[in-house]
Design brief:
The protein has about 220 residues and is of the alpha/beta class. It has a 5-stranded mixed sheet. Helix 6 packs antiparallel against helix 7 and helix 7 runs antiparallel to helix 8. The protein is elongated.
Length: about 220
């Protein structure tokens, strides 16, 4: 700032919140500041954003550490375009989460090195899809892989146009499982002992039935 002044924390917070939560580009933020009589250059806003990010890094590192020590984690990755040498390239935003906390890690590749770096040395249950990038973690004895029901169900929905009768049986079983979880949420029993007992009694029998039906379909295809 002119005269040797400093930018206060509220300026950093406003710039970062607008960019991250509201997806407002730095150029548009600069226009907004100018309309309020504050001539901020886009490059200055960019510098403040990155400087603020560095100030928050210890909190970010602590958040990731707490996440990775959870007993049960969910993980996924989604394409995220980024600019590199004047071109738009494909990167990936990795997310790990549990019931109350989530963390994001950007990578220029979809390499399994990201989950390995985050989760090696810890242990628990990792809920993921079938992407092989998680194998570097789940093939270790420390992490048990749990498949994602939403990803599994999606394949049977895709099969409805070509094999409606068999796909519909599977989808109906999924619907019954989802109904049980819906009732648990309505009664606010998530994570409770009652929730565990409901899964062990009602949900387990449906999962056993689901497994049996799928195995019978596999046998039919072989024969």
């Amino acid at each position: 700032a002119e005269g040797g002044g400093r930018f206060g924390p509220s300026v950093y917070a406003q710039i970062m919140a607008k960019r991250v939560f509201d997806a407002i580009p730095f150029s548009r933020q600069a226009d907004q500041w100018s309309r309020n009589g504050i001539p901020f250059r886009k490059t200055t806003i960019c510098d403040l954003f990155h400087r603020g990010s560095q100030e928050l890094k210890p909190i970010y590192d602590a958040l990731l550490l707490e996440l990775c020590q959870a007993d049960v984690l969910h993980a996924d990755e989604t394409p995220q375009p980024f600019l590199a040498e004047g071109k738009t390239r494909r990167g990936y935003m990795w997310v790990i989460a549990h019931d109350t906390l989530s963390g994001y890690v950007f990578s220029k590749t979809r390499s399994g090195e990201i989950p390995r770096q985050l989760l090696s040395g810890e242990k628990g249950v990792l809920v993921v899809d079938a992407y092989t990038g998680y194998n570097k973690v789940t093939q270790l004895e420390s992490w048990q892989r749990a498949g994602c029901l939403a990803h599994a169900r999606r394949k049977f929905v895709d099969a409805l146009p070509t094999d409606y009768q068999r796909a519909a049986v599977i989808i109906d079983l999924f619907a019954q499982l989802y109904h049980i979880e819906s009732q648990v949420r309505v009664k606010k029993q998530q994570g409770s002992q009652q929730h565990l007992e409901i899964r062990q009694t009602k949900s387990k029998s449906l999962m056993d039935q689901l497994k049996s039906v799928i195995e019978s379909y596999q046998l039919e295809s072989i024969l």
